[in-house]
Amino acid sequence: MKNECDIVKDLLPSYVADLLSTNTNQFVKEHLDSCQKCRKLYEGMKKTNCDNEEEEQIEIKHLKKYNRHMFILKVILVILALIIIILPLIIFIKFYINTNVASKAINNVNEYKNASNYLLQITENRIDFERNKEQFYISKYFYKDGQYKTETHFYSPNVTVGNPDTFEYGVINSKEKTEIEENQKLCYNIKSNYIFRRESEFLDLLMIALQPFSEDIGPLINIWVRAGYKLRTDTYNGKKCYVLKTDSKTSYKEIWIDKEKNTLIRTIEEIYNKSYREKTYSIKTDVVTNEDVTLPDLSGYTIKNIENNIPDKDIEIYEQLVI
Ligand SMILES: [Zn+2]
Predict the structure, then answer these.
(1) Element of type H or E holding 1
(2) What is the pTM (predicted TM-score) of this model?
(3) 269 or 17, which is more confident
């Protein structure tokens, strides 16, 4: 029996762990049934084993929990990484596409800077929702070989003004100009100590309309502001257009660019429940005649000579003002 007890004692750990073959298992089981000493040993071992298993289970639970937490953390990190990479990428792609569309119109304006003869026409429709007023303007800018004429016509169903039709004649980079108020038959010869009209000043009106794409406000702000525009295609007067639109809760602004000719043709600015401002633009070359930019016969007009000097320190500011 002593010998068999030794064998069983050796086998007990495997027996407890249920690792024995059927026959050996049977042998140990039979011995345990008949040997109290070994059975006590077995029961002691089984208890310890159970405790170990319990501990193991707890440990596994903790491990599983830890793994689950690690998994969630990894998912969050991956999503964060994607946001950090993808968001700037989307912003940059939008900036790139929008800038590309607008730069075609800007290049188009720059081409006119070399033109010696062009006519720029801008119409404007303003609605004041608060005062329930509507106003229309037609402005024409004739330019030929350094000479110019501007024409402004104003109309409003609600307002009567004394001089709805005004004209201005002059030479680029000159400190003299002539203004005519057609309806009053008034003519002002104006002299000043600053230059009234600079080269390509009228074209700057188009550049202003193409802001923020036509101005540099710093690389990062450029990207942020220009990427904020939504691009769509639309039709205006039968012309297919790119429309760049930026909007907020209170307002929106649209820039319409002729898809085929790459010219700016329309801008809209609306402040909801407050005001609406729509402008259309057209420009033609080689249509301005000498007659267009030459002072007409002023017989019958009251002519006034005005000297309009400004303080020297303001000259630079005045000369940089556009219209
Ligand atoms: Zn025994």
Answers:
(1) none
(2) 0.75
(3) 269
Task: Please give the span between the terminal C-alpha atoms of the chain, in angstroms, as a whole number.
Answer: 120
Question: Do residues 205 and 197 touch, judged by C-beta distance below 8 A?
Answer: no
Residue 1 has pLDDT above 60, yes or no: no
Distance 42 CA to ligand 1 centre (A): 10
Q: Considering only CA atoms, give the Rg of the chain.
A: 43
Q: Where does 111-320 sit in CATH, by number?
A: 2.50.20
Residue 35 Cα to ligand 1 midpoint, Å, equals 5
Q: How far is the CA of 26 from the centre of ligand 1 (A)?
A: 14
Contacts of 106 (CB under 8 A, 6+ apart): 207, 210, 213, 214
Question: 10 Å Cβ neighbour count for 62?
Answer: 10
Distance 247 CA to ligand 1 centre (A): 91
What is the Å distance from ligand 1's center to 14 Cα? 16
